[in-house]
Amino acid sequence: MRSNSVSKVALLAAAVVLAALPALAVAQENVQAVWVPRHVTFIYQGFTTHYSCDGLQDKVREMLSKLGPRDLKVFSDGCSRLVGVEPSPGVRVTMQVLVPAASAQGRKAGGPAISAHWQNVQIMAANSSFEEQGNCELIQQFKERFLPLFTTRHIHYQANCIPHQLTLGTHLSVEVLMPVPERAHPR
What we know:
By secondary structure, the protein is α+β, with helices and mostly antiparallel strands.
């Protein structure tokens, strides 16, 4: 009878430990981070989908917003037409992004450290609408030009952009360093 009680206690202890593992993993994933400024100019060059200056500005702002920058500002740049599709529309972007406080950039930036965590962000799902799949070239260029400005890991990217053809299956997701949301305090 005693060994049966011990087994039950051992099973209960194991269940408590296993239940706590996700919380421990989350706690270990928290990173002290600081905000650093980023500035970039981007000129879109695509053959399949074309954008107006405002259209590119809105699309880039939408994608960047998903990655959690602070003080994001996106301006049209290098546009020659007041309306309609632009041959090579561009944007200028200023923002602040999180970098680990212990990194060389973080130590150089100084500033107050905040608690951050890794968050999976889907820029474009593989099963996106037919219309969204037309952004293949923009997604490809976004990955190359904008993702290096952020602290990221586990980039999942797939695209087979063929000029002048709409291709399906484009996908871009990434884990990015984001601020830990402040908890609401009861009043």
